Amino acid sequence: MTILDHPVRKAPARNSITRQASCRRAADSFARVRARVLLDRDGAVLTFPAQIATAEAVHFAVRYSSGLIHAAVPSARLDELRIPDQPALASEHSGIPFTVAVDAVGVGTGISGTDRAATLRTLAAADTTYRDLRRPGHVIPIRCRTGFDDPTMWDTCIDAVSAMGYRPVAVACRLVTEHGETMNEHAARQFASEHELAISEPVGCCDPRRQAV
To answer: Is 0.85 surpassed by the pTM of this model?
Structure first.
């Protein structure tokens, strides 16, 4: 058999290799921060404990969302930290109780993955006081309730991280497609599978801590 008789094996496309490596790094990163995808009637939310937020996890969250990174925080804790609600006209109210955005004191511009991860960890730390945060900033807290029978998506994010044993402050962002549209359930399930993330049933349909098969 000559060399010409041997079948030619095509090398995997470079883009495919790069994508696989990227997915593997993302999976490793999220394994460390215990990330998961939560579903509701409006789409899907990526969430993980703010207590262990990393720059890599925040960068990934920004890449696959609109770029707005939220921290779901119990209402009483926001009051302790003196973080006021975001003012809005009645006609502009979205129905989501956003507060004024914050940065941790000591970070740089506040916009980088490293800075936002530091802010998220600061929001979650038990010993943080209002003096440790500056306003306005680049992480937008959401005021959440606890102990209610009809939890919102953001309340459920807190429930999820609390069930893992972390402090009740959750990183949360709405997932979007590459075209900028909100991910539907089918797209969210594909996303979770591709990045090896846990995924929960739609909020309001079952216990949010029950992982889908």
So the answer is: no
